[in-house]
Amino acid sequence: MNVVPHDDDHWTKYNGTQTGRPVRPLLRDAMSMAGPGGGRTAIDLGCGAGIESKALLDAGWTVHAIDGVPLMDSHERLTVDVRHFAELDSLPAADLIYAGYSLPYQPPDSFRRVWTLMLESLRPGGVLAVNLFGENDSWAGDESETFFSADAARALFDGFDVRYWAEEDEDGPAFGGSKHWHVFDVIAVAPFSP
Ligand SMILES: C[S@@+](CC[C@H](N)C(=O)[O-])C[C@H]1O[C@@H](n2cnc3c(N)ncnc32)[C@H](O)[C@@H]1O
Predict the structure, then answer these.
(1) What's the pLDDT tens digit per position in 35-68?
(2) Residue of 89, 105, 146, 179 with the most ligand 1 atoms within 8 Å of its CB, for mutation
(3) Most CB atoms within 10 A, among 25, 73, 130, 184?
(4) Measured between alpha carbons, how far is 97 from 27 in angstroms, rounded to an integer?
(5) How many CA atoms are closer than 13 Å to the CA of 173, on its beta-carbon side?
(6) What distance in angstroms lies between residue 44's CA and the mean position of ligand 1's atoms?
(7) What structural domains does the chain harbor?
(8) Residue 3: its pLDDT value, please?
(9) Is the pLDDT score of 29 beyond 90?
(10) Is the CB of residue 112 less than 8 Å from the CB of residue 159?
(11) Is 101:146 a contact under the CB 8 Å cutoff?
């Protein structure tokens, strides 16, 4: 099993291997639901090598990208916020938030705080696309990361229109080894009235 620490050094190496991979389908599907960018704002939380941020920029979005160690080219509609999630105290208003394989890499108290910021920043009808880790994951039990039961993951989206829900619960490759992945892939639309 892969037991390397998920620190900035790890992510710098990981992000350096991502060049040329396809845009993640979760973001593609979220963009289809959200409609044209047209200068609207999207947030990419844990943007890494910026592949999904670039797809958003190419579709006309203004992008606010956040990561502890981003690896991205500049663009006139891109703001790169070099920051760890625990340091976030606000997010811009947004019509799409994508957090691909990033939010679980923080302790539960930080996750809850950042989740609240995300929900506050998402405009009515905005699209939220995230990967969350489940309790059967190989890494579950690591107190520096956040894992959910299916029910607890569902509860995060109370009041939202959950348009896509997939659960992966199987062994598979990881950066530097293999592991058991337990992941919830979710796309949900924010309510128009609370
Ligand atoms: C597995 S990569 C995912 C990259 C990309 N979002 C994707 O969908 O492939 C995780 C990214 O999240 C960032 N990250 C992990 N934990 C973080 C934290 N606590 N604060 C800020 N960024 C973090 C890492 O630096 C890395 O770039």
Answers:
(1) 999 989 999 999 999 999 999 999 999 999 999 9
(2) 105
(3) 130
(4) 9
(5) 2
(6) 10
(7) 8-189 (3.40.50.150)
(8) 66
(9) yes
(10) no
(11) no
